[in-house]
Write a structure and sequence with these properties.
The structure is a single chain. 37% of the residues lie in helices and 23% in strands. The chain has a single domain (3-135), classed as Zincin-like, CATH 3.30.2010. With 146 residues, the chain is α/β, with parallel strands linked by helices. Helix 2 (33-43) crosses helix 4 (100-116). The strands form 3 sheets. The protein has a 4-stranded mixed β-sheet with strand order 2-4-8-7. It has helices at residues 6-12, 33-43, 92-95, 100-116, 121-135, and strands at residues 3-4, 21-25, 28-29, 53-58, 62-66, 69-73, 81-84, 87-91.
């Protein structure tokens, strides 16, 4: 199975988000790159301010490299993705069997938490569903009346 590089993910990241994302990956299948890129394209137009994010893509335990060491994150088996204090963890092995639509939704959910600062899961799901529906033309842009 061919693996993606951090640069592959950076290359598909929406241009407005690229300077704010530091991506590291290990054993991330190429099949994750396009859904990740689509999620960045869906979230970018909805943002007014962009926060710096460190994004770790790989299989548990995942390592976050630091200047003077590293942090190791060992999520529970059921964790597919997680945002914690400016770091997004994407579990490559758990994402791989999902459809591209679901992979996009999972990435998008973590971007909503991290970049829109939404904690509530119900609200996050609503925002993700709205952005996905809007991208499919199922929701027309709001129009203003004179």
């Amino acid at each position: 199975m061919p693996f993606a590089t951090a640069q592959d993910f950076q290359d598909v990241t929406h241009v407005e988000l690229r300077p704010f994302f530091q991506i590291t990956c290990e054993d991330a299948p190429l099949e994750l790159v396009a859904p990740f890129g689509r999620a960045t394209s869906l979230i970018a137009p909805a943002l007014t301010q962009i926060a710096y994010l460190f994004i770790v893509i790989g299989n548990p335990p995942m390592t976050v490299p630091l200047e003077h060491g590293s942090l190791v994150f060992a999520p529970h088996a059921e964790v597919v993705a997680l945002h914690h204090h400016g770091v997004i963890y994407l579990n490559a092995g758990a994402l791989l069997p999902l459809s591209d639509e679901k992979k996009t939704a999972v990435c998008l959910e973590e971007f909503v938490h991290a970049l829109m600062h939404v904690r509530d899961e119900t609200l996050t799901t609503g925002i993700v569903n709205y952005l996905l529906a809007k991208s499919k033309g199922q929701i027309s842009p709001a129009t203003s009346s004179p």
